[in-house]
Design brief:
Length: about 260
């Protein structure tokens, strides 16, 4: 595996390990999103792949969209950006007829939270933190977070942690059903790999059919939700709150939303 690649892939015993690899925070830029999409295309096409294990390099799963790169999007259309980046990636994960396990090795925020929640199963390090993140820079929700988060932890909790931007701890995530398992951070790679190998040895075709059933029963409007999120994000992206949020982020200060 080459560390120069924004996304690393490794196939072992039927498990395709996909590692987000853009130090230090594994924040998404255009190359990383494209590489992740290609990795999931290969996962679908390669008959040797029976399970996908998604994780991040280092001690961070992903901080979501790179805010500095996102400024390039604002000259165009945020909606168009989402329609060609995160929305297709979320749909790829949900439509892949193979189990997808996310190994949350550290903080995860923003669009990366949506990607993690799109996975079928989640195992987290005990020091992992889950941050919605969008409102911190004056944006609404995208990457299906508006659908997945309340479905997993309830609307009240989802609203609280969206509006306050406070982190959800690994312990809270486990208690509320946001993750399936929590393990000591040092044990996460081995435990995640072992679980993924077990999944790969199971009835993967039947798992794929079960996944289709879950999609129909629980997320039948996923594509419509993604499109509507993109519409709302376009509105938010043109607002003064977003301008202030980005300025505050780049200047490393607290945003002053009430004085605009």
């Amino acid at each position: 595996m080459s560390t120069a690649n924004p996304v690393l892939t490794e196939l072992n015993q039927g498990v395709l390990k996909i590692t987000l690899n853009r130090p230090r925070a594994n924040a998404f830029d255009f190359a990383m999103i494209e590489a992740a999409q290609k990795a999931f295309v290969n996962a679908e096409r390669d008959t040797q792949v029976r399970c996908v294990l998604l994780t991040g390099s280092g001690s961070v799963f992903s901080a979501g969209q790179d805010v500095k790169v996102f400024q390039e999007v604002e000259a165009g259309s945020i909606r168009y950006h989402l329609q060609r980046t995160y929305n297709p990636l979320i749909l790829q994960i949900r439509r892949l007829a193979k189990p997808v396990l996310a190994a949350i090795n550290g903080p995860v925020a923003g669009a990366a939270l949506g990607i993690a929640l799109a996975c079928d199963l989640r195992i987290a390090a005990d020091d992992a933190r889950f941050v919605v993140g969008f409102l911190g820079i004056g944006l609404s929700l995208d990457s299906a977070v508006s659908l997945f988060l309340p479905a997993l932890i309830g609307l009240g909790r989802a609203a609280e942690f969206t509006f306050t931007n406070q982190p959800i701890t690994a312990e809270q995530a486990l208690a509320w059903g946001l993750v399936n398992r929590v393990v000591p951070a040092a044990e996460l790679p081995e435990r995640a790999s072992g679980w993924a190998t077990e999944l790969a040895q199971g009835p993967v075709h039947a798992m794929g059919l079960a996944k289709r059933a879950f999609n129909k029963a629980v997320h039948p409007n996923l594509e419509l939700v993604l499109d509507y999120e993109a519409h709302l994000q376009e509105i938010a992206g043109r607002g003064e709150e977003h301008k202030e949020g980005v300025s505050a982020f780049l200047e490393k200060r607290a945003p002053r939303f009430t004085v605009m």
